[in-house]
Amino acid sequence: MPLPVVCKGLPRAHNRTNRRFCVIPLLVHTLFVLPRSCRCFSIGLMTAEYVRGRSELARMYRRNIVRYCELAQVLVFRDISMRTRRRFPTLDTVVAAGFMMPHEKDRFDEIQYRYSKYWVPFQWALALSYDARKKGLIESDYYQVVVQEEIKKFRTGLAWICNYDWVPIPIMYPQLVCLAVHTYFIVCLLARQYIVSDSANNKTEVDLYFPIMSTLQFIFYMGWMKVAEAMLNPFGEDDDDFECNALIDRNITVGSTTNMLLFVNKQNVSH
C-alpha cells in the first residue's frame, strides 16, 4: 500500500519543483541546457539591443528598465524566500541596495491597499519603453513591442512563482503519505514476526534474527518520503533549495554588463 502512495508523491513534488525552476525569470539567459517546458527570458539583451544610443539618457533608460524588472523580482522573492526576506527585511534596505530610488519608494508607498504591489515596477518599465520610443531611442514600433513583450514574459514568470506559492500542495496530502508509511511499518513490525512453534506453518529460521527485506523497504520508503518532503518548498533554507540571493546578484550584474557592452566600435569589426 505505501509504495503507490510514495511513488506518486515523489514525482508530484519533483514536477512541481521543476516547474518552479523553469519559470524563474532571468534578465539574460546564458547557454543553459533547458527543458522545452522552461521559459527563455531576454529582457536584458532586448533592452540593450533596441534601446539604442551612447548618450547618458539612453544608458539611463536601458539601466532603469532592467532595474525595474529586477526590483519586481526582489519584491516577489522577499515574500516567498526567507533568505531574501532576511537580506531585505524592509523597503529601506531595498533602497540602500540600489534596486529602488528614494523618490520611487515614496511613489510606491503612495499606493495604499492590502494587496501586493508587484505590478508597479513593471508599469514603470513599460512606461519607460513607451517614453523611449517617443524620444527616438527605440527606432520602430516593432522594437518597442519586442521590449514590452520581454517585460511581460518576465512578469509572467514571476506571476507563476507567486501562484505556486499561493496554492501549495494540500497539507493533507503529505500528512497522508507520512501516516501511510509509518502505519505500514508499524503493522509490518507485528505481522512479519515468525511464530516459533512446532505447529507453525513456516518453521524456517532464515531471516529470523534480522529482517533484511523489511529493513530495505524501510530505508527506501522513508528515504523517498524525506526526499519528497524536502522538495515541497524549494524556496526554503535547506542547502539544496534555490539560491534566490545569488540569483538576484547574478541578474543585476549580468543585466548591467549587457548594457555597458552594447556597442562595438566599427574599427574593431573585421570584414
TrEMBL record:
Q: Which GO terms describe its molecular function?
A: chloride channel activity
Fetch the InterPro entries from UniProt.
Bestrophin, Bestrophin-like
Pfam families (UniProt xref): Bestrophin
Q: Which family does it belong to?
A: Belongs to the anion channel-forming bestrophin (TC 1.A.46) family. Calcium-sensitive chloride channel subfamily.
Q: Where is the signal peptide, in residue numbers?
A: none
Q: Does the keyword Transmembrane apply?
A: yes
Role according to the record: Forms chloride channels.
- State if Magnesium is listed as a keyword: no
Topology relative to the lipid bilayer, per the entry, is:
Multi-pass membrane protein
GO CC terms for this protein? chloride channel complex; plasma membrane
Where in the cell is the protein located? Cell membrane; Membrane
Keywords from UniProt, A to Z, are: Cell membrane, Chloride, Chloride channel, Ion channel, Ion transport, Membrane, Transmembrane, Transmembrane helix, Transport
Protein known as = Bestrophin homolog
Main location class:
membrane
